[in-house]
Amino acid sequence: MISRENIISAARELIGVPYLHQGRNVRTGIDCVGLLVLIGQIIGYEEIHDLADYRRVPSSSTLLEFLKRNLDEISLEQIQAGDFVLMTLGGRKARHTAVISSLETDLVKGKEPMLIHALNDGNITRVIEQPVKRWQHLFVKGFQAKGLI
Q1: Nearest to 36 by CA among 65, 7, 56, 9
Q2: Model-level pTM?
Q3: Residues 6+ apart with CB under 8 A from 66
Q4: pLDDT by residue (tens digit) across 56-100?
Q5: Dihedral pair phi/psi, residue 114, rounded to 5°
Q6: At what angle do helices 32-43 and 4-13 cross, to 10 degrees?
C-alpha cells in the first residue's frame, strides 16, 4: 500500500543527494526524473517505469508521457502533500518535476508549504526542500501515485 507519508518520507531520505542528469544513484546523483524513480523504488511502488535517454532538459511531451504512465493526473486544486507537480523551468515548457512535501501553514511555528526536487540552477546542485511559494507560479499539472491510500 502506498501512502502520502511513505512518499514524503522517501523524498526526504533523498535530500542532499547530488544532482546528476539521468542519475539514478544516491551516491553519484539523480535528476528530477530520478527523484521520482528512486522514491518509487524506496516505497515499493511497482507502477514506476523509468525514462531513459532524454536530453539535458527533457521535452515537455516526454516528461508528461512519463508522468502519465506512472501516475494519475489530478487538477492543481486537488494537490496534497505526497503528490507530484509538473512545472515549467527555463521558459514556457513544462520540464521539471517535484514532490509536495507539506501544505501545512502555521505562521506562529514558521511552517509553510514545501516541495522537494532535484535542482540544478548553477547555485544549487542537489535534492533540496524549498517553499512552494517560490515555485507555485510554475506549476502546470498535478499527479498522484496510483492506488494511493
Answers
A1: 7
A2: 0.92
A3: 33, 49, 51
A4: 666 678 889 999 999 999 999 999 999 999 999 877 788 899 999
A5: -135, 160
A6: 120
How is residue 93 written as a grid cell?
515548457
pLDDT of amino acid 32: 93
Closest CA to 99 of 118, 81, 84: 84
Residue type, 63: L
Taking a C-beta distance cutoff of 8 angstroms, is the pair 87, 93 a contact? no
Q: What is the dihedral of CA 138, 140, 146, 149, to 10 degrees?
A: 60
79 backbone dihedrals φ, ψ, rounded to 5°: -60, 135
Angle at 15 between CA 7 and CA 106, to 5 degrees: 70
